[in-house]
Amino acid sequence: MATKTRLLLTVAAGFFVLLTIQIVPYGRNWTNPPLIREPSWDSTATRAIVKRACFDCHSNETIWPWYSRIAPVSWLVRHDVDEGRKELNFSDWQNGARDGERINKLLKEITTGEMPPFAFRLVHPEARLSDAELRQLIAGLSATAQR
Ligand code: HEC
Predict the structure, then answer these.
(1) pLDDT surpassing 70 at residue 129
(2) Backbone CA torsion sign across 114, 118, 124, 130
(3) Span from the CA of 52 to the centroid of ligand 1 (angstroms)
(4) What distance in Å separates the CA atoms of residue 87 and residue 117, rounded to the nearest whole number?
(5) Residue 109 CB less than 6 A away from ligand 1
(6) Residue with more model confidence, 64 or 95
(7) Is the pLDDT score of 95 beyond 70?
(8) Integer CA distances (angstroms), 53 to 25, 71, 96, 121, in order
(9) Radius of gyration of the chain (CA)
(10) Other residues' Cβ atoms within 10 Å of the Cβ of residue 8
(11) Which residue owns the Cα nearest ligand 1 atom 10?
């Protein structure tokens, strides 16, 4: 078989596989659950940073861009959103007493650079926080924990 034909067949096969996996139902639910209760933010600036860097996986205000609707990316995004909300959901915050405790745990995650996840920062420039923004975020969340 000529190299060109083989290349064409490979591309066609790849395209067919990509098309076929779109049938899988997992990852096709892009509706967000209702908003229940947010933490009592110390300022709108703190909320704005968290919204930029964390809300897509840790709130019920997830924005689902077009590529998040195409398998296999849709499967990864669905998994991140489900796991993320389970750990921490800024739209479904527990009341008062435990806020401080939860925020302290959260601060550890940010300061070690684990959140937001690396792959997310790659495709979301707005979630790449500068050192100054990171300091602002940490101060803001600490203040939120005191309220
Ligand atoms: C791309 C999705 C995504 C984004 C954006 C994201 N997270 Fe997460 N987060 C996850 C997932 C998935 C988990 C659960 C699995 C894990 O711990 O890695 C998680 C877990 C956590 C946990 C619990 C960790 C633990 O082990 O107890 C904290 C705290 C957290 N994230 C904070 C944040 C903060 C703060 C931001 C924003 C600065 C953020 N995350 C942004 C996906 C995300």
Answers:
(1) yes
(2) positive
(3) 13
(4) 14
(5) yes
(6) 64
(7) no
(8) 28, 24, 23, 8
(9) 20
(10) 12
(11) 84
Query: Is 56 in contact with 26 (CB distance < 8 Å)?
Result: no
Q: Is 90 in the pocket of ligand 1 (CB under 6 A)?
A: no
| Structure token digits, residue 37 | 């209760």
CA angle at residue 25 from 75 to 80, to 5 degrees? Answer: 25
The tens digit of pLDDT for each residue in 26-61 reads: 999 999 999 999 999 999 999 999 999 999 999 999
Which residue has the least CA distance to atom 29 on ligand 1? 106
Q: State how far the alpha carbon of 92 is from the alpha carbons of 23, 49, 81, 111, in Å.
A: 32, 18, 14, 23
- At 44, list the tokens: 């709108």
How far from each other are the two terminal CA atoms of the chain, in whole angstroms?
72
Name which residue sits closest to atom 19 of ligand 1, judged by CA. Answer: 84
CB 140 within 8 A of CB 43: yes
Distance 12 CA to ligand 1 centre (A): 38
